[in-house]
């Protein structure tokens, strides 16, 4: 299986550079993975796609102002992008500098603290602060890490619009973008429909921005991301399936969190890391439907949705979305996807 099997032509002007004035004003393409049929709709029609007793699973991670500027002791500039925190004073960062960083080097931060390079792994470096906590440094010195395909500097409104309205647990460097469509009105409409919701936490890492470099899909190694699937969420999923309801993941991050916790066929509470890579041929153990945004060509996220609904079906739907002028990527429109029969593990 080649990464070039997962490409499509996207006019650059369809990449959303700004959020809409209202979160729930986005369009939504509804795709039936079993039949291959699709329908143009709106995110405000999501309650009509769901049944009373269905369960939405949302990712309550909170995006940190995760981009930092530092200097080497020699004066050279270093740009840091948080990958994941390991504790109060340690974390992995993607680092850009004119010359590679090495273990033992010291970096000077804007407010006077210093960070020591403990370890290097490719473009990643593990850094330890000498005084403050990383959360405090990021909040005081960091900027919002808008994705590289948004060609503008972060603005004040991104502090609010590049977060979900239910963001709670700090730790992500990118938003779980399917959740950006939800506002209070849409949540109330889902409540009125009798749709329940629970949360998982998956802190999206900087690896989500990195391309698949191996031509053979199966050779790609995912970056580690930390996640929590609580006993309460597991109990709600178990009860939902027992009464015949569906479990709908809001975003690929919620999907990967649940599928990590259910990899052996039994869903259990989970706290730890995941490198789970879902591509065509992999089976889904937990989710019954998926709400997601449109994803980059040749990306692991496009491979995930192709695994769920079928590659031919998904790429045809993407071709339609381009022709119909949907808005793509983080600030773009949504898809509601039900699976192809072969993607699901039978109960």
| DSSP helical segment count | 8
Strand content: 25-35%
Distance between the termini: 28 Å
The strands making up the biggest β-sheet line up spatially as 2-1-17-16-14-3-12-13-15
Word description of this protein:
- The chain is an alpha/beta fold.
- The chain folds into two domains: 3-63 and 159-343, QueA-like, CATH 3.40.1780; 67-141, Thrombin, subunit H (Beta Barrel).
- It has helices at residues 46-49, 134-141, 158-161, 184-193, 231-242, 252-261, 300-309, 311-323; strands at 27-32, 38-42, 55-59, 61-63, 67-72, 77-85, 90-97, 106-109, 114-121, 124-129, 169-172, 196-202, 225-229, 247-250, 270-274, 289-293, 334-338.
- The strands form three sheets. Strands 2-1-17-16-14-3-12-13-15 form a nine-stranded mixed β-sheet, covered by helices on one side.
- Helix 7 packs across helix 8.
- It is globular.
- The relative contact order is 0.21.
- The mean pLDDT is 94.
- One of its GO terms (molecular function) is S-adenosylmethionine:tRNA ribosyltransferase-isomerase activity.
- It comes from Acidithiobacillus thiooxidans ATCC 19377.
- Transfers and isomerizes the ribose moiety from AdoMet to the 7-aminomethyl group of 7-deazaguanine (preQ1-tRNA) to give epoxyqueuosine (oQ-tRNA).
- One of its GO terms (biological process) is tRNA queuosine(34) biosynthetic process.
- Monomer.
């Amino acid at each position: 299986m080649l990464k070039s099997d997962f490409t499509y032509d996207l006019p650059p002007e369809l990449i959303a550079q700004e959020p809409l004035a209202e979160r729930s004003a986005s369009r939504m393409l509804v795709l039936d993975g079993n039949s291959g049929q699709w329908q143009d709709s709106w995110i405000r029609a999501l309650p009509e796609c769901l049944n009373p007793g269905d369960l939405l699973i949302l990712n309550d991670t909170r995006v940190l102002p995760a981009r930092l500027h530092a200097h080497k002791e020699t004066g050279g500039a270093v740009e840091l992008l948080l990958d994941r925190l390991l504790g109060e004073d340690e974390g992995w960062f993607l680092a850009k500098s004119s010359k590679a960083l090495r273990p033992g080097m010291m970096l000077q931060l804007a407010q006077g603290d210093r960070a020591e390079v403990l370890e290097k792994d490719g473009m990643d470096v593990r850094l330890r602060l000498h005084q403050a906590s990383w959360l405090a440094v990021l909040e005081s010195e960091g900027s919002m890490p808008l994705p590289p395909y948004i060609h503008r500097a972060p603005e004040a409104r991104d502090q609010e619009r590049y977060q979900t309205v239910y963001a709670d647990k700090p730790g992500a460097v990118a938003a779980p973008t399917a959740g950006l469509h939800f506002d209070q009105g849409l949540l109330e409409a889902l409540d009125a429909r009798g749709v329940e919701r629970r949360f998982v936490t998956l802190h999206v890492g900087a690896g989500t921005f990195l391309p698949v470099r191996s031509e053979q899909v199966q050779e790609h190694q995912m970056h580690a991301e930390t996640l929590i699937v609580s006993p309460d969420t597991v109990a709600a999923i178990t009860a939902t399936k027992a009464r015949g309801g569906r479990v709908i993941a809001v975003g690929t991050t919620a999907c990967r969190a649940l599928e990590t916790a259910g990899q052996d066929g039994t869903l259990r509470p989970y706290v730890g890391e995941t490198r789970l890579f879902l591509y065509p041929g992999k089976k889904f153990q937990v989710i019954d439907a998926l709400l997601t945004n449109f994803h980059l060509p040749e990306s692991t996220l496009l491979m995930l949705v192709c695994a769920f609904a079928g590659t031919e079906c998904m790429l045809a739907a993407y071709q339609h979305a381009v022709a119909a002028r949907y808005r793509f990527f983080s600030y773009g429109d949504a898809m509601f996807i039900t699976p192809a029969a072969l993607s699901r593990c039978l109960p």
